[in-house]
Amino acid sequence: MNIPQVLGYARIAGMPTVTGLYTVLFPLVAFALFGSSRHLVVAADSATAAIFSSALSEMEPVGSAAYIHLVSAVALLNAGFLLVARLCRLGFLADFLSRTVLVGFLAGVGVQVSMSMLYDMVGLDVGSHNTLAQFVGLVRAGSHMHLLTAGISCLACGLLLCGARFLPGRPVALVVVLGGLGLSWVLGLAQYGVTVLGPMQGGLPHFAVPVVSWHQFLALLPVSGSCVFVIIAQSAATSHAFAYRLHETVDANADIVGLCAANAAAGLSGTFTVNGSPTQTAMAVQAGGTSQKAQLVFAAVTLCVLLFFTGPLQYLPRCILGSVVFCVAVGMIDTAALNHIRQESPGEFRLALVTMATVVSIGVEQGIFIAIALSLFRHVRHSYRPHTMVLKPDTTTHELEAVPVRAGEQTAPGLVVYRFCADLFYANCSLFSEDIDLLLSSAPTPVRCMVVDCSAITDIDYSAASVVRDVLFRLHMQGVRVIFGRVASYALADMERHHIVAALGEGNIFAQLHQAMASAQHTVAQQPSTGALVTSP
Question: What pLDDT score was predicted for residue 378?
C-alpha cells in the first residue's frame, strides 16, 4: 500500500520514480534503529517535497543530474541541522502540541489527503496543492471524470469499508491492491483509459557523498532550514498523535536522532528528504504494526520489489491506490474524539476545529505552527486571567473555604487571606494589584493585616516584582501589614533576587499558611476588633 504512495511523492519532488522506493529502504531502517516512536513511518512526504522542489527547480532543470545532486545535498544538510537540533534538545517543541490540537491536526490531514485522492479515484489530474482549490476544481471538472476509473474506485472503497467493518485486522487492503494489480495486468485496463503507475527501473541505489560549491551551499541553507522545521514539527505531531491514541509514550529528542540518521541515509543513497508521514503511519497502524519491526519488514519488502517486482508494479491502477489512501485518510478523522472534546471542553473543541481548518485551507506545515501558537495562546490566556480567591470561614463548618474575589469579601474583621492561583508575570501582575486594592477599599471593616497565600506562585518575573513592591509600599503607607504564607523555596529565591523580601520586612514570610495565620491573628488582636478570628485548617 505504501510503496505506490512514495512513488507518487517522487513525482512531487521532481525525482526519478525509483527514488521514491529508495526513501523506504535505508532511511526507514535508519529511523527504526535510532528513533523512539513505535509507529512513525519515516519516508517521502509531500510537504517537504514541495518545499525543496519549488526552490531547487529555479537553480537547475527538474530531473537533471545536477538537480538530483542538489536534492541529495539538501537531505544531507537536513541531517546536519537535525543533529544540531538534537544537541539543542528541540524535542521540547512537541510539548506545545496538546492532545486537542493533535486531534484537529490529524483530522485536517485526513480531509486534505482524502480530497487529493479523489482526483486519482475519478481519473483527473490535480491542478493545485490547496485543498479548497482542489475542491472547487473537482466540482468544475466533475463532468470530465473517467467513468470506468470512478467505478473501480467505488468498488474498491466498498470492499475496504466492508472489510474494516466486518473483517477488522484482516489484510483486506492488501487483497484489494493485489486484486486490482492482477485485473489490470490480465484485462489491460490501461488501454481503456485507466491510469496505471507505468514502467520504472529497479535495482539498488548508488552510495555517494553529494559535493556542492560554496555558492550552492549558501543557497541551500534556507531551503534546508524550512524543511527541518517541517520535519521536526510534523514528525512530532504525528508520533505524539498516534502515541496518545494508542496510550503510549515517545521521546521526541530520540526521534530527532532517528530523523537525522534517516535523512543522512537518504542523502548518501541518492534519494530525497524524508519525514514522518501521517498517512503512511496510519496505514502501518491499520495494518496491525505494533513496533518498528513492522518498518524493518517494510524495508525488506521494498528491497524485494526493487530487485524482482518493479515490472508487475507498473500495472497497478492509480485509482486503486487512491481508494486505499482515501479510506485511510477518512479513518484519521476521529469523530468520536472530537465529540468527546466538544462535550467536555467547548473552547478546546473550537481550537481543534481551527487547527483542522488551517491544515485544510492553508497547509500541513502552517497548520502545525498555528496549532502550537494557539496552544500557547490558550495557556497564556488562562495565566493572564487566573483564578483569585479569598479564604473565609464556611457558615456551617467554620473552616476556611476559598471563594472568588469580590467587593466586600473578608476573611475576618481586620484580616484578608488572598490566594493568587498562578505564577506572577508581566501580563497578570496588574490583576494582583487590582484585587488587593478592591479588597482593601471595599472591606466591611478596616483591614489591618493581609495574608497572601503563595502556594500557586512558583515564579516571579522582573515586571511582576516591580508591581508587588509598589503594592507593598502602598499597603505599608496605609498601615496594613502584609504576610506571605506557603512560600516555596524556588519562589523565595525569586523574592530575594527581586528585593521583595526586603520590602516585606523581617518576619513576614512563612513556609506554612497556619504559621502566617497565627502571626496575622497576633497583629489583628492588637487592634480594636468586632469579631472573632478563625484558624487555618
Answer: 74
User: Residue 392 and residue 15: Cα distance in Å, rounded?
Assistant: 71
> Is 368's pLDDT higher than 90?
no
Alpha carbon distances (Å) from 83 to 79, 87, 111, 149, 252: 6, 6, 33, 45, 13
412, 524 Cβ separation under 8 angstroms = yes
Encode pLDDT of 23-67 as tens digits: 999 999 999 999 989 899 999 887 788 778 878 888 888 888 899
DSSP secondary structure letters along 458-495 = --B-HHHHHHHHHHHHHHHHTT-EEEEES--HHHHHHH
Residue 485 · residue 452 · CB < 8 Å:
yes
Lowest mean pLDDT among 209-218, 232-241, 264-273: 232-241
Task: Annotate 379-443 with three-state secondary structure.
Answer: HHHHHHCCCEEEEEECCCCCCEEEEECCCCCCCECCEEEEEECCCECCCCHHHHHHHHHHHHHCC
SS3 state of residue 34: helix
| Residue 528 clears pLDDT 60, i.e. is over it | no
Q: Which residue from 517, 509, 508 is spatially nearest to 491, judged by alpha carbons?
A: 509
Which residue from 271, 282, 272, 243 is spatially nearest to 113, judged by alpha carbons?
A: 282
Least confident of 271-285, 414-428, 450-464: 271-285
Cα–Cα distance list, 273 to 368, 418, 463, 468 (Å): 19, 56, 45, 52
Residue 365's pLDDT is what?
63
Say if residues 204 and 159 touch (Cβ distance below 8 Å).
no
CA dist 149 and 319 (Å) reads 6
Q: Which of 356, 362, 368 is nearest to 94 (CA)?
A: 368
The set of cell numbers assigned to 16 is 526519478
- Please give the grid coordinates belonging to residue 109: 490531514
Please give the model's pTM, rounded to 2 decimal places: 0.68
CB-CB neighbours of 372 under 10 Å: 21
As a whole number of angstroms, the distance between CA 97 and CA 373 comes to 9
Angstrom distance (rounded) from CA 242 to CA 91: 17
Element (H, E) at 137: helix 131-140
